[in-house]
Write the structure tokens for this entry.
Amino acid sequence: GGEKKRVNIGTELLTNPSVIFLDEPTSGLDSTSAVALVEVLRELAMAGKTVITSIHQPSSQIFQSFDQLILLADGKTIFMGKPLNALAYFGTMGHQSPAQYNPADYVMDLVNQDMKIREELKEAYLQNRMIEG
């Protein structure tokens, strides 16, 4: 599965797109291959390409390599910013990340909380955007 996925991505890159959308590009890859793929995507971004990807279970190394994170709950934004800023942001709302916990797992756990917590996070983000705007 991983070999075919890399070939498909490489084939699409031959068209030299300015925007690259990838849905779960690391699924089915071992951790070394997943990190290598994300490094290639990062190099493309550094070369001026816009890279947008969804990854539901990133390793902490992959999570920290992204420039921006948009975190959705029920299709609504609950965080947008630098990935590691998410920990502090959710901490201010009483959702502290446990020590030595993968930050990607922490934010995904928040997204998968019960409806009450998801509603709280969506409302807090909306209120923060209104204050900033």
Observations:
- The helical segments are 2-13, 31-46, 60-65, 85-91, 103-111, 115-132.
- The mean pLDDT is 89.
